[in-house]
């Protein structure tokens, strides 16, 4: 019998977490560049100033509402980007909240933001790897994958991953047998071309590893 678990890990979580981190990093860069180019404008009037941290909160709220309201992998992907943009806008104002004079220009802020991003990256890599996925987790992830056939076109890559997940399940389980039979009867579409953000994410990943492995960076 499969053991009950409070949290079922998402085997595809790396994609969503990568979306989140890349969106957050880009968000910080874009905000800093925009503010520098526009000479750090005050958004508001009189005694009012609308900090971009509030926009960050709105984006994170939008990410949560999206996740709560809709079902699909695309929804999760969109929510991960929205959440990343929001978190980037939020964390960019870190200097204001760790200094007595609310100093946005506090020098160590960028270093602290970098450390926070690194810690988030390490934590998100630890969660799916601190022990092997259970049969229940593989089964639930297979069901989630097959669910996409009712939401959108079911492509070759999705069927291949669903079959791989089911191979890690108890083959005597009647649900596993039913799902494997169901997979054989689902019409499969060709694997679609990667979307815009997926292409950007892959290019960003290549660029990151190229910079990280560069001798010039190490000897600078």
Question: Could you give a quick summary of the protein structure above?
Answer:
With 220 residues, the chain is an all-alpha fold. It has ten helices and no strands. 67% of the residues lie in helices and 0% in strands.
Structure commentary:
Helix 1 packs antiparallel against helix 5 and helix 2 (52-69) runs antiparallel to helix 3 (73-91). This protein starts with 12 loop residues before the first helix and ends with a helix. With 220 residues, it is an all-alpha fold. It is 67% helix and 0% strand.
- Overall average residue pLDDT: 82
* Distance linking N and C termini: 57 Å
What oligomeric state do these chains adopt? single chain
The number of distinct β-strands equals 0
Strand content: under 5%
- Main sheet specs: none
Q: Segments where pLDDT lies below 50 for 5+ residues?
A: 216-220
Structural class category: mainly alpha
Helix content: 55-70%
Radius of gyration: 22 Å
Approximate shape: elongated
The topology string of helices and strands comes to: HHHHHHHHHH
- Give the helix tally: 10
């Amino acid at each position: 019998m499969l053991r009950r678990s409070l949290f079922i890990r998402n085997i595809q979580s790396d994609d969503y977490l990568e979306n989140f981190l890349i969106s957050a990093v880009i968000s910080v860069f874009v905000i800093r560049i925009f503010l520098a180019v526009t000479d750090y404008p005050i958004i508001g009037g009189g005694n009012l100033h609308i900090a971009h941290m509030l926009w960050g909160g709105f984006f994170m709220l939008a990410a949560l509402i999206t996740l709560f309201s809709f079902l699909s992998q695309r929804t999760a992907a969109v929510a991960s980007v929205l959440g990343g943009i929001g978190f980037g806008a939020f964390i960019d104002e870190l200097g204001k909240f760790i200094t007595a004079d609310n100093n946005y220009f506090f020098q160590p802020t960028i270093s602290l933001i970098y450390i926070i991003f690194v810690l988030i990256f390490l934590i998100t890599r630890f969660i799916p790897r601190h022990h092997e996925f259970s049969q229940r987790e593989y089964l639930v992830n297979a069901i989630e994958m097959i669910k996409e056939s009712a939401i959108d076109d079911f492509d070759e890559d999705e069927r291949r991953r669903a079959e791989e997940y089911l191979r890690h399940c108890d083959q005597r389980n009647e649900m596993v047998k039913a799902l494997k039979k169901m997979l054989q009867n689902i019409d499969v579409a060709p694997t679609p071309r990667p979307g815009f953000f997926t292409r950007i994410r892959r290019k960003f990943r290549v660029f990151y590893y190229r910079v990280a492995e560069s001798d010039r960076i190490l000897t600078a």
